[in-house]
Amino acid sequence: MYPVTPQGxxxxxxxxxxxxxxxxxxxxxxxxxxxxxxxxxxxxxxxAPFDLTLPAISKHLKVLQRSGLVEQGRRAQWRPCRLxxxxxxxxxxxxxxxxxxxxxxxxxxxxxxxxxxATQPAADDRQT
Amino acid sequence: MYPVTPQGxxxxxxxxxxxxxxxxxxxxxxxxxxxxxxxxxxxxxxxAPFDLTLPAISKHLKVLQRSGLVEQGRRAQWRPCRLxxxxxxxxxxxxxxxxxxxxxxxxxxxxxxxxxxATQPAADDRQT
Lengths: 128, 128
Hints:
The structure is a homodimer. By secondary structure, chain A is mainly alpha-helical. Helices cover 59% and strands 5% of the residues of chain A. Chain A has 7 helices and 2 strands; from the N terminus they run ααααββααα. Chain A has helices at 16-24, 27-36, 43-47, 54-66, 86-96, 99-119, 121-127; strands at residues 70-72, 81-83. Chain A has a two-stranded antiparallel ribbon with strand order 1-2. In chain A, helix 1 packs antiparallel against helix 4 (54-66) and helix 1 (16-24) packs across helix 5 (86-96). The longest helix of chain A has 21 residues, at 99-119. Chain A starts with 15 loop residues before the first helix and ends with a helix. At the A-B interface, helix 1, helix 2, helix 5 and helix 6 of A face helix 1, helix 2, helix 5 and helix 6 of B.
């Protein structure tokens, strides 16, 4: 049929993909990932471009760490945060199964524009 | 620098990508999308494989409709739900910017496995 894995009431906590999507459902957390894609950064460095307190940034970081999108070094004074790409790979693989749908809708748009051009050459001719 | 658009306190509601990620952060909603990728379906048909009431399914459908992932026909008796791929395309484009990170980590794994094979040929030789 189709890949359905409904979550029963006895299942403990949300699945990994749901945790990842939930972590990504916030523009500040996505901006933190974008910053980390340029290289490791401390919490203070991450907080700098945002109008947010350190505790607020730490809360976002905890969500990102729980989902496995960010890991933090263990050295006491300098604990840089680092991007972990594995959950993003899972998102890419999940969404790729729908590629044919958006490609089909882009194709239809393409066909429509070509049809418009074919049926309305007079509009351009009138200009010349 | 990097694409940061922190959400200020005056901004109305969440951005489109956050709404999409939030809608995808549930296994039942993803299963509904998987079902609709096989073709249009009524709410009753969508509810069938799940151990959920019609109102519970309707609630999930509302979330999917608000995010633009599903649209419902307007014919009174037969209102089929249909997949709308545009928000999934946006997710694919967003996650694609991180491709080099997971490809790099797969490359590193590849290098490591090749190194293992190079340094431990004796283990295989002993078998023959």
